[in-house]
Amino acid sequence: MADICNVCLKSLKNVKVKVLCSDCNKSFHGKCVNLSADDVNYLSDQGDVWRCTPCSQLRRKSMVLESKSTVTYDDIFKLVNELKEDIKRVETSLGTSLNSCHEELAEAKKIVQDQKEEITKLVETINELRGENNGLRKQIADLQLRVDEAEQYSRRNTIEIHGVPVQKGENVVTIVKDIGRSLGFPVNDSMIDACHRLRTKVGSGRHPGIIVRMVRRLDAEELLQKRRVKRNFNTHDIGLTAKPAEPVYLNECLSPARRTLFSAARKVKNEKNYSYLWVRGGKIFLRKEQGLSVITVTKMEDLEKL
């Protein structure tokens, strides 16, 4: 491992003063083998080789043994003792390195524990914020429902009339009176608060509707009830006989939110084969088939449960 010091076992990366043993090819920090930058530079300039302590001692022992014609017991004993000392030094160095590793590991464990505690706090904060957010969502939904109910209530006297062609120079009040007369519910000027044509989208192919606001809610409800009874009510009934008869519809005036809900309910009716969908008093109702219970639709969640 050329990138690890053989004494302290730490990395040699980005270290300027380091040296390589010519015998064992192990690398060392200069300071770990008592070599300064000048020493290392000198060795390099002179082309001299450098050996670590164990390799130097082994080399000296080898040279001594080679110089002797015979090896005595004392020579072997001395060599064994020197090896023991070398091993002891390596063990000491290794112990120091292990202690350093333990300290770094303990520090890393403390950092991880601190981060774990911080993450736990953040998770608790996120859960609290999620709870607050859900609460606010519910409050907003409740407020939106109350606003929609208030707006729908303000339209309780209003009727939408659809299917009546636009006539040149027409008087929409007169049209409303003709509709009332044809349905058996005479309407006079004092019963009408406001009346006007709606705009229609270009290219829709539909006649623009008529909005009429009655002074009394009871009159509006009675006119609607008369239309429910007369199922085949059309343009011929109100004197528009120049063209083929077209059905004329009278509906409750729904708020924008309630109109969107009604459109979604119509889609569910078709997709799930419900037989009945109607509006009464600004409320939307569904029924699967005759004889089954009526479902009141007040919000999108009611449709999602079907």
Would you write up a description of this structure?
It is a single chain. With 306 residues, the protein is of the alpha+beta class. Helix content is 50%, strand content 13%. The protein has 7 helices and 9 strands. It has helices at 37-46, 53-67, 73-154, 172-182, 217-229, 256-271, 300-304, and strands spanning 18-20, 27-29, 158-162, 192-197, 210-214, 249-252, 276-280, 283-287, 295-297. It has a 4-stranded antiparallel sheet with strand order 4-5-3-6, covered by helices on one side. The chain is rod-shaped and about 140 Å long.
Strand content: 5-15%
Judged by helices, strands and strand pairing, the structural class is alpha+beta
Outline the biggest β-sheet. 4 strands, antiparallel
Strand order of the largest sheet: 4-5-3-6
Helix content: 40-55%
What is the topology?
Layout: E1 18-20, E2 27-29, H1 37-46, H2 53-67, H3 73-154, E3 158-162, H4 172-182, E4 192-197, E5 210-214, H5 217-229, E6 249-252, H6 256-271, E7 276-280, E8 283-287, E9 295-297, H7 300-304
Antiparallel strand pairs: 1-2, 3-5, 3-6, 4-5, 7-8, 8-9
Helix pairs in contact: 2-3
TL;DR?
This protein is of the alpha+beta class and 306 residues long.
Task: Name its key features.
three-stranded antiparallel sheet; 7 helices; alpha+beta; 306 residues; four-stranded antiparallel sheet; 13% strand
